Amino acid sequence: MNYDQLAELSRVLYFPTTLMLYLGGAFVYLYALTMGVGRQDQRERGVVLRRIGGVMAVAGVATHVAHEIARGIAQQRLPLGNMFEVTSLMALVGVLAGLFVLQFVRRRAELNGFVLLAGSLVLGMAMLMYADPGPLMPILDTWWRPFHVSLLVSAMGIFGTAFAFNGLYLLRDTAERSVTQAFDNAGSGGPGAAHTNDVKDLPERGSAADEEREQLQQYHAALRAGINPWKLSIGVFLGTSLVSWVWITAQDTLAAGFGRFFTVNLTLVVAALIARWFVPFLPSTSALDGLAHRLTAFAFVLWTVGVIAGAMWAEVSWGRFWGWDPKETGSFLTWIAYAGYLHARATHGLKGRNAAWIGVWAFVVLMGTYLIANYVVVGLHSYANL
Amino acid sequence: MTESLPPPQMNPPLPQRTRNTAHGFLIDSIQMGWRWLARMRTALYMLAASAVLNVVGTFVPQEPNVASTVARWRNGDAGPGVGVSRALDFFGAYDIYGSALFIALLLAIYLSLTACLVPRIRAYLRLVRHSVPPLIDKPSRVNSTVTFVTDTTQVDVIQTAKTVLGRHWRTRTADSTRAPQLAAERGLISREGGSLLFHVSFYVLLAAIIVGQLTSFEGQRGVVEGEAGFTDAAVSYWNYSPGRWFGEDQHDGWQLTLNQFDVDWVRNPTAPGAGQATVFRSHVTINPAAGEPYDAVIDSNKPLAIDGRRITQLDWGYALQVRVEIDGEVVHDGFIQPMLGDAGVYRGAVKAPSVNPDLGLDVFFYPYAPDDAAGRPVPTGAPWDEAPMLLFRQWRGDLQLGATQQTVNDLDTSQLTSEGGAYLRLGQQVQVGDAVITFVDLRRWVGYQVSSRPAIPALLAGALLLVSGLTIALYAYRRRVWVLTQLGPSANTTLVTLTGRAFHRPDAFIDEFADVAQQFAAACQARDLVWDSESNTPAAGT
Which residues of B touch A85 (CB under 8 A)? Predict the structure, then answer.
């Protein structure tokens, strides 16, 4: 195969193949999640669906890896040289790490859908920065690059997955609080089921079954109603805008820029609304918080080592190990933000919602500095247009 | 012997105590201030404040990095305007990392860190020396618990438990007033120790950076191919920034000459990455102070090391030798180093103040401007010097050298009048007015940085401490298990309860507890195993 064929192959493997597999897997998993409760036969269907979702996820990861390999061969170098490649790899690592942790470490495979959904979003974002395969600037052509960049990109991917769980935690917590508050105000007893996961076996038939199912549906509705969709949408839109305004400046025309801006924002709003719909099927808040924390802790170590490696490379390549270049500043800022999250989570009075919010903000800082340092502020790290 | 406590609160309540004397008030204030500094919440506020400064540092151009942009912000050519610029200057925002605000914050962070660490280290040392896990009477409800019956004696069960747990657990057995029991704890030294190591590494880093600043040296110098190079001496650098402890006598006096600079690009305009550079390589000759001269190569990621000095390529460009003669007299003959501007055009200037009136050339250099069919040059933005063309406009009058601010590549044309212009190929000459301009030679120049940073190993050691401390602190976790024994339901049997809990990472502990319990039960040849609900579902997470 010649270069063009390989390049074309890698492109097709990426889009539509990988994106469709991730998205498909996400929706199959999420649909299966709604079957975790209810009648026995429904639960069995859920297991089958989960298996299908698993096959799609594995196939998606496989095509994604194949894309990276094809692209790497096409340009005769590791695909870690520009923003598309970095963002694509960020999605791959985020999905791989998320699936691995959920499947084998935490054994919560039912949540895989959220990881795949988050991965699809990052994958889609990478497409906004698509660049054809090409050679590398000589300054980048050294073994330092894969070392430094892959560490940071892996950290970014895992931070992204942690962000998804932080968001889910906040959604679930908000919903639970509002339900508890509603029942407290009504002065009646509890909602009957603190967690839907506790309600495993519903009677198969009969009026008792109908009544219980109705109760459960009411509880689900109450949980969902606990999150104001308008507030959520506007919040996500504004929160995303903190980062996505970069697209406005990065495009040639204002119209194209605003097009991207709204595409990114509205996609995330839709994702948040989907997540809201699945709030009743989420596990306990402490499980979500724990997932976010462990993923963040791991990524934080990677990030730290990656930044140190970057400083070592800078000493070799630019003759100074730290010069407050915009990207160095950004990586340091991100480090501080996640250090704040880890400290907050170990502090009484801050753990829980406050810590999770710091985690969410830290991801905003991460994505903001990633895009801004590449597109807006010109520094030594500006390789965006390669 | 001190019983180890559960993890302390990170934000202990501030004790309120007052002394009624002025002296007491002072002591109280200092004590309260110190305790406030030691609180985690304070540290978080300070981290947030430093994050804010970082945001400023990201958006506001920083003078040490991009001095020209800052200059344009200051005089209102770019950025938010002169007024805002003055305010930014007032807060030192153009050099945020050298500003008093940043230094003060850094000091406050280190003070807070110290206030936090002193009691923690003392408590840690106490813990390491004396701590033992407490004994319990019955398992707590939050524990994971398993009970079983075995045919061995209570004392043997305790002995087996010790063997199964191994030497990594700090154990303690009950005295004779209680039923035989084993309390074990693990992870307390490593977790807190890792966290302390991580925090202490910041002092190492700070010390290494300060000593590094004092002992380091950095100098920059541009060299034209084939011309005389430079000698490692304080006077030969264009930019020279030595640390306070770096003496000028520490220069070694070697000489560097640039023989050739290789640079190439992806020239096919349709190939991927068209126009990108593919190689930056200097072929230099080093003439050491003692010994024979030798040739060396400096690559973009392979700086040259000479006696602890590091030579890095920072920059490169074209060097144009332009000769200006008036009435047969050479008034200018030397290399100019035009700067790369927009669209691949290099801009520079020739200044000849020795003639009267002054002569100035505004130079545009196109490295690749091939002739079209009619024989006229067509400027392109391509950077390779296959068809170089020098385009200039000639000015006469007052160059205002020393009167106005201008760089070597800028002409101040306010007091100059144009005499027209022309273009030159390499080697050609042309007469404009009474001046004969010759494009004599085209070479390349490279900007080198010579640096010496003796504190780098200390910095690396600090980074290593930081990473290892961080990893341990985030992955080690503190947990306790107890083996409680009582006489069994029938003669010669023992009822054993294994129970435990983790203070961190409960998810990891559930799996570990299940492993330990299984091993222990197998070693005791257990019967009638009963798991409590929580440890029964080790897969459920937390």
Answer: none
Complex ipTM value: 0.87
Phi-psi region of B166 (alpha: psi -120 to 50; beta: other; left: phi over 0): left
Both structure tokens of B143? 């524990």
**Low-confidence spans in chain A with pLDDT less than 70:** 1, 36-39, 135-141, 187-207, 377-386
Q: How many CB atoms lie within 10 A of CB B140?
A: 11
* Residues A286/A173, Cβ–Cβ less than 8 Å: no
pLDDT score for A385: 41
Give A-chain residues touching B106 at CB under 8 angstroms.
none
Those residues whose C-beta lies under 8 Å from the C-beta of residue B168, and which sit 6 or more positions away, are: B186
**Consecutive H or E run containing B491:** none
Q: Looking at chain B, which residue has its C-alpha nearest residue A139?
A: B300
pTM of the model: 0.88
Question: Measuring CA to CA, how many Å separate B320 from each of A280, A377, B337?
Answer: 73, 32, 7
Which chain B residue shows the shortest CA-CA distance from A297?
B474
Q: Cβ contact (<8 Å) for B41 and A304?
A: no
Residues with Cβ within 8 Å of residue A100, at least 6 apart in sequence: none
CB contact under 8 A, A336 and B54: yes
Q: Which pair of structure tokens corresponds to residue A302?
A: 């990677």
- The pLDDT > 70 percentage for chain B reads 94
Nearest to A135 among B41, B273, B453 (CB): B273
Distance CA B489, CA A79 (A): 68
Whole-number Cα distances in Å, B506 to A77, B512, B513, B541: 43, 10, 10, 8
Which chain A residues touch B456 with a CB distance below 8 Å?
Answer: 315, 321
> Is there a contact between B309 and B298 (Cβ–Cβ < 8 Å)?
no
- Residues in chain A closer than 8 A to B50 (CB atoms): 336
Mean pLDDT of chain B: 87
- β-sheet bridge partners, residue B346: B340, B365
| Contact of A166 with A107, CB cutoff 8 Å | no
Contact B40 A321 (CB under 8 A): no
DSSP A101: I
